[in-house]
């Protein structure tokens, strides 16, 4: 299995303290597999069946959970930024519902106005403060979590204010915008390969739990099975929706990531508005929806922070009245419409929820109300779905300018690419550098023992690792390999390839979309495409 990459250096706000634990050394031990961890017996699985005893209509006095009410501050100047979490506004949506011909009122719960930019700020604060109340998080402690980004931002913000160290374990598919935000709050980031199974020792769960095992006075947040996750939404988000609508709620549309939002909000809504319908919005390639026949196994999910290939413990699917599946193209185009037409500076997952809401709310009548959550901010996605070239390359929007060029409908296979230069994970950075010089290339395909593509290595990748002091030329390339790179199939048209090249230095041609079986066929650079166009122009 491929190892996680080294943490970003200099990110820990405690680095100046002489008594500070050397987190980087511990992280490197985990990366280099110097610890002992057997996922078969030690892994706390995030998909075990929940054992919560909550039941609709039960006596509140028998609730297994402690009720938590957000303090109300009367001061004009608040004590710190964490006191601004929650109490987000409800905003009526106008243009998009009208375009769909809806008769009902559609109201958005604007969660990106939380200080960290997402709905996850709520659970970050609640999980940390519950741990403090329970005595399992002590002063000087280290917060550790596996996250798709937004929870990591929230936890890093809470840790910064409260004075805790923080380590976030993140898959390498997550946008650099989120990762840079987490680092800016002073947290360490460990990136693990997306292709590694979540329940392996090298996956996000395994790495976070291994770090917890090695670091004293650390707290593994474990949002997927932490009861404070749904409780945050039961006590605040759900109650705010009911209060903001004066009890008149006919439908609520939510996404399912960890499942905490859907579980917590649904329980509160069903208690206070028993006739309201709960809609679960789910990406096409996720497995959350019921019946399971709705789910498309093996379909990649581009939208971040929503949908998984396992059912989180925190998700109670019995609360969802109807599931609606939405593909990436519809989701991201709807997110762009929310930005352009309703003025909401939202992220991609908001498009999943809004697209589902437009389908579900078509059955509502005049005078009824549909509430849709808007989970996070545009800040995290400035390098992807808000970029026209990014959308055009994936076929999510048309490219009117490139479309009519003579070469636009030609295929990658027409480029007649030569076989790429490859290197093994165990080879050294010095060998990689020598191979690049000898072959006159800037990129190498990195393959594992089975010949499958593990990642890409470029000259800047090597230089970056060396300049940070994390790697020497005599070290293996494992900790320098880039696992966030663009892949295409050989039957992709060149107009799409040109858009990918607008965004990066190269694209990697692979045999399959499946990350577990793909092999490398070739590498396309701007020079390759220009050479093809030049030869074609001369032959005209």
From TrEMBL:
Taxonomy, superkingdom: Eukaryota
Gene3D superfamilies attached to this UniProt entry: 3.40.50.1100, CBS-domain
Domain CBS: 416-473
InterPro entries per UniProt: CBS_dom (IPR000644), CBS_dom_sf (IPR046342), Cys_Synth/Cystath_Beta-Synth (IPR050214), Cysta_beta_synth (IPR005857), P-phosphate_BS (IPR001216), TrpB-like_PALP (IPR001926), TrpB-like_PALP_sf (IPR036052)
Keywords carried by this UniProt record: Amino-acid biosynthesis, CBS domain, Cysteine biosynthesis, Lyase, Pyridoxal phosphate
Pathway(s) it belongs to: Amino-acid biosynthesis; L-cysteine biosynthesis; L-cysteine from L-homocysteine and L-serine: step 1/2
EC primary class: lyase
Keyword Amino-acid biosynthesis applies: yes
UniProt GO MF annotations: cystathionine beta-synthase activity; pyridoxal phosphate binding
A Pfam family: PALP
Cofactor: pyridoxal 5'-phosphate
Family note: Belongs to the cysteine synthase/cystathionine beta-synthase family.
Function according to Swiss-Prot or TrEMBL: Hydro-lyase catalyzing the first step of the transsulfuration pathway, where the hydroxyl group of L-serine is displaced by L-homocysteine in a beta-replacement reaction to form L-cystathionine, the precursor of L-cysteine. This catabolic route allows the elimination of L-methionine and the toxic metabolite L-homocysteine. Also involved in the production of hydrogen sulfide, a gasotransmitter with signaling and cytoprotective effects on neurons.
Protein name: Cystathionine beta-synthase
Name of the coding gene: LOC113209693
